[in-house]
Amino acid sequence: MRIKQTLIAAAVLGLLSSGAYAVDFTGYTRVGPGQKQASGDGQRCFNGGGVDANGSAAPGHGGIGRLGNECNTYGEFGLVQNATMGGVTYKAELMTNFYSTGSTPDTSQLGNQLANTPAVSQLYLEGRGYDIAPNVSFWVGRRFYHRADVHFDDSFYLMGGLGQNATGAGADGIDTGFGSLGVAVFRFQDSTTTTNAGTLLNFDLQSMPVNPGGQLRLVVSSTKFDGAGGKSGLGLTLQHIQSGLPGGGINTLFLQTARGSAGLDMGFGAFNAGSDTKSWRIADSLAWLNGPLTAQTLVHYGQSQLPNGAGGTFNTKTLSIAGRVAYALTKNFKMQAEVGTANTKVDGKSSENVTKFTIAPTLTVGPNFYDRPEIRFYVSAFSYNNAYALANGQSKTSKTAAGVQLELWF
Predict the structure, then answer these.
(1) 308: helix, coil or strand?
(2) What was the pLDDT predicted at 1?
(3) What is the DSSP letter of 268?
(4) Rounded to whole angstroms, what are the CA distances from 4 to 36, 119, 384?
(5) What is the DSSP string of 235-260?
(6) For residue 386, what is the enclosing H or E element?
């Protein structure tokens, strides 16, 4: 059924196009042979720590990095058409994606998508140039909205979770005199088979100059879930981006807090999370993206106070430090290394700690950090304490994994 729906959507987008307006093909994929995602000692990839109900643990790979630590197969492929009609510039996008927890198809569920089965992840229309507000973009549909990430860890600190699986509408580029405002509303699980549909109202004020080379971003999200047990929530993020650092460096700082049914990424959290569910985190990432020597780092600390089901609460604390460095020996060959360590502590339990080190000779098309495609030959060494080994079904406290991976976008 999903494949049929995808083909129908593609046909509709094709009918909207004409000889005057070309349709662009875009995409992303990562894949590697011989990998295995399983419990116990068959496990070859590890996250930095446990993730609680409101996502207080580091997202992505838990702060220890994704290089040599991705056992899944993922791809997304999109058709984008740009056109101008009646003085309005339109953009229509259709994107399908697929996911598998390993290198071969499986039948496990990933949210509302059967693993390795194509689904529609984006389908929206955006228009700009309306005479009533010529500098504002209006959009309706299902889309990835204003996401912000730390790439080497695959950590999406803004709108990377349930917020990207919702359908909504909004307006971007509203000039406030001190920044550009975006306003959007989303609905999640809004169907005849779900009683706990959610509504999210998002305000995103970007590009506020606060110091030389520095810009501030303020994001506020309010959530409300319907039905029995449905709760409200509120989330707040401050993001500061500092450019012009020595060597062309860029620093990105996130300060985030959320309570109730709002997620820390300013998307949807658990529908039944009440006001006693509180979380906050701080994350800082440095990046040098151009030239033969490139790098990206991440320092992350977060805490959550969650209900324990008996009228009280318990606390979770997470800390991770990690980074990737690459040096291009030639235009098409670089050496990459990545190291990360993460610690998770839950009240009443022993701290769980894991450390990862990866080295990856890489075939590439250029020296810069984001030059793709890359073909990586990697060896990863993992070391963890007894508490982490027990929580992840490991009989030993170390493991080494080797493999090959492709990462591509276009």
Answers:
(1) coil
(2) 47
(3) B
(4) 30, 10, 45
(5) EEEEEEEEEEEGGGEEEEEEEEEEEE
(6) helix 386-391
Give the C-alpha separation, 45 to 73, whole Å.
Answer: 13
Query: pLDDT per residue over 130-155, tens digit each?
Result: 999 999 999 999 999 999 999 999 99
Q: Which of 191, 138, 195, 193 is CA-nearest to residue 169? A: 138
Residue 34 has a pLDDT of 56
DSSP string, 53-116: TT--S-STTTTS-STT----EEEEEEEEEEEEETTEEEEEEEEEEEEESSSS----EETTEETT
* CA nearest to 222, candidates 199, 192, 256, 245: 199
AA letter at 54: N
Nearest Cα to Cα of residue 313 among 346, 276, 339? 276
For 304, residues 6+ apart whose C-beta sits below 8 A from its C-beta are 52, 54, 56, 277, 278, 279, 280, 315, 316
Q: E strand or H helix at 12, and its extent?
A: helix 2-16
Name the residue with tokens 């970007």.
206
Side chain identity, residue 272: N
CB 153 within 8 A of CB 58: yes
pTM strictly above 0.70: yes
CATH of domain 2-409: 2.40.170.10
Burial of 132 (0-12, 13-18, 19+ CB in 10 A): exposed
Residue found under tokens 């987008």: 13
Interval 108-124 mean pLDDT: 68
CA dist 316 and 265 (Å) reads 17
Helix, strand or coil for residue 40?
helix
Nearest residue to 356 (alpha-carbon basis) of 53, 74, 43: 43
The three-point CA angle 351-354-359 to 5° equals: 165
User: Is the pLDDT reported for residue 177 higher than 60?
Assistant: yes
Where do the structural domains in the chain lie, given as residue ranges?
2-409
- Model confidence at 102, in pLDDT bands (50, 70, 90)? confident
